[in-house]
Amino acid sequence: MSQTLDATLFRRCLGEEFRPQQPGLRALTLREVKDLGGDSTRADHQPFSLIFADPGAQVDDALPQAIYHLHNHQLGEVGIFLVCLGPDLKDAERPLLYEAIFS
Question: What's the domain range around 34?
């Protein structure tokens, strides 16, 4: 991928699937893109975070924190470090949430 990964780029993908390239893993849905503000050590973008949801997962299915190669139809393949936040207690379906922070 030759594009700069920034919040604007990911906002175009809200609600879309990101499919892990590892066999046996379910697709994640990009649920939120949040500007984090503050100072950045990089001149090309400001810090932001992504929240992904896995609606079919139980807590026991949580992915360990790691870099996952995710494929999206607009972006192609991107490597993203994901951390499981646990189930979304505000959602009746209790999907597992994952966060990625770009600083």
Answer: 7-102
